């Protein structure tokens, strides 16, 4: 039975790269009200190509929320437990955004465009109206808007060689989580050494949507001999890398401590932030569950449409699998999920319910090793 065709209308925001990126795409999804390609040749073939060459990704769905004005830093600080007070222009910071219960609203990359000017490059949730509401309610002197900026990403081991052909500045001078303002073929861009893969790369922020197709074509021509081809965020690669997906691995029902995002901030920052009291209580009492990596041998398992129920053998309580994919490189399924706190030891055996069947797995360390391997 064929899958339904995605209907397009003006309710879905149009990517400036859509005429190019949709060509050859075998699957798409909707992310931040924008159509996002999710597979080209196949999940596995796209994975190997990403690891070995370079891909151009249409990630216009990674929309921006611009915060600008005298109270811009105060507002952005209020959104996250991460201390942003020392950010300087040209710097990027990954930061979880919290609600009043310390639930994760979003996990953007925040770009410091100036001392009173920030972009929040968001994942898939409606942040713009939420931030506008917070600014209005607090009476802050700030403008919150959509700057109509669209990212395009170059990812893979040959991405630096490709970008070196496109810009005049030394690519090696762009540090990790830093950005520069430059041009490609006369098209103004913000270029950051960031991206949602484990293979390294760059994100090119375009603020002239009419130049989208010309930018894509210029990059495609420059990378032809590097085996450049269209790609997209890859499920296998991002799970292997440990990149969490908002809406899949964390939602408003999760806090950043149980999700393992507390490594990106320290408790007790001087500036006030939403959810501070709730987060401090979780830190004091300890979370009830913990995000873990999972390995499951046997036949490839599909990524869960909701979650797979999971229990840790010999331990009370239940957890769930939030993401799963078969890794052709490691030779087994890899996954992410939550188990009760105290049951997260590497090597602990788990039982996962998949479509009424039960499969066995183990909790793995950062290198996807278990005590049984």
What do you see in this structure?
The chain is of the alpha+beta class. Among the domains are: 18-62 and 149-239, Gyrase A, domain 2, CATH 3.30.1360; 288-373, Beta Barrel (Elongation Factor Tu (Ef-tu), domain 3). It is 18% helix and 31% strand. The protein is built from 8 helices and 21 strands. It has a 6-stranded mixed beta sheet with strand order 12-13-14-11-3-15. Strands 16-19-18-17-20-21 form a 6-stranded antiparallel beta barrel. A hairpin with a 4-residue loop joins strand 18 and strand 19 (332-340). The longest helix is centred in the middle third of the chain and has 11 residues, at 128-138. It is globular. It starts with 17 loop residues before the first helix and ends in a 9-residue tail after the last strand. The mean pLDDT is 97.
Unreliable spans are: none
CATH architecture of the domain at 18-62 and 149-239: 2-Layer Sandwich
Q: Helix/strand-derived class?
A: alpha+beta
Determine and state the CATH class of the domain at 18-62 and 149-239.
Answer: Alpha Beta
What is the CATH topology assignment of the domain at 18-62 and 149-239? Gyrase A, domain 2
CATH superfamily of the domain at 18-62 and 149-239: Probable tRNA modification gtpase trme, domain 1
Radius of gyration: 21 Å
Straight-line distance between termini: 40 Å
Helix content: 10-25%
Largest sheet: 6 strands, mixed
Kindly report the average pLDDT value.
97
Number of strands: 21
Q: Which strand order spans the largest sheet, edge to edge or round the barrel?
A: 12-13-14-11-3-15
Order of helices and strands: HEEHEEHEEEEEHEEHEEEHEHHEEEEEE
Contiguous helical run count: 8
Beta content: 25-35%
What form results from the Cα inertia axes?
globular
């Amino acid at each position: 039975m064929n899958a339904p065709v995605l209907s397009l209308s003006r309710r879905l925001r149009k990517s400036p790269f859509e005429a190019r990126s949709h060509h050859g795409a075998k699957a798409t999804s909707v992310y931040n009200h924008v159509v996002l390609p999710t597979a080209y040749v196949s999940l596995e073939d796209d994975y190997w190509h990403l690891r070995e060459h370079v891909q151009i990704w249409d990630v216009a769905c990674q929309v921006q929320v611009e915060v600008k004005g005298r109270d811009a830093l105060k507002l952005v600080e209020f959104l996250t437990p991460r201390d942003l007070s020392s950010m300087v222009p040209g710097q990027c910071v990954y930061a979880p955004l919290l609600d009043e219960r310390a639930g994760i609203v979003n996990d953007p990359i925040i770009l410091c465009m100036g001392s009173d000017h920030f972009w929040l490059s968001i994942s898939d949730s409606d942040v713009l109206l939420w931030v506008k509401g917070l600014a209005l309610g607090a009476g802050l002197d700030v403008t919150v808007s959509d700057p109509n900026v669209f990212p395009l990403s170059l990812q893979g081991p040959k991405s630096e060689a490709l970008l070196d052909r496109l810009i005049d500045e030394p690519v090696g001078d762009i540090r990790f989580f830093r950005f520069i303002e430059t041009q490609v073929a006369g098209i103004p861009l913000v270029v950051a050494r960031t991206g949602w893969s484990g293979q390294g790369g760059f994100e090119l922020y375009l603020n002239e949507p009419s130049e989208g197709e010309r930018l894509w074509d210029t990059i495609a021509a420059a990378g032809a001999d590097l085996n450049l081809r269209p790609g997209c965020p890859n499920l296998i690669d991002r799970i292997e890398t440990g990149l969490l997906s908002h809406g899949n691995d964390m939602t408003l029902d999760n806090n950043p401590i149980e999700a393992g995002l507390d490594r990106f901030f320290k408790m007790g920052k001087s500036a006030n932030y939403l959810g501070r009291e709730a987060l401090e209580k979780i830190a004091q009492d300890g979370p009830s569950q913990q995000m873990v990596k999972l390995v499951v041998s046997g036949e490839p398992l599909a990524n869960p449409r909701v979650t797979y129920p999971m229990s840790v053998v010999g331990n009370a309580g239940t957890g769930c699998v939030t993401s799963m994919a078969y890794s052709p490189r490691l030779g087994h399924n890899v996954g992410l999920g939550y188990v009760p706190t105290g049951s997260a030891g590497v090597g602990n055996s788990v039982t996962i319910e998949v479509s009424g069947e039960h499969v066995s797995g183990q909790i793995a360390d950062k290198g996807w090793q278990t005590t049984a391997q």
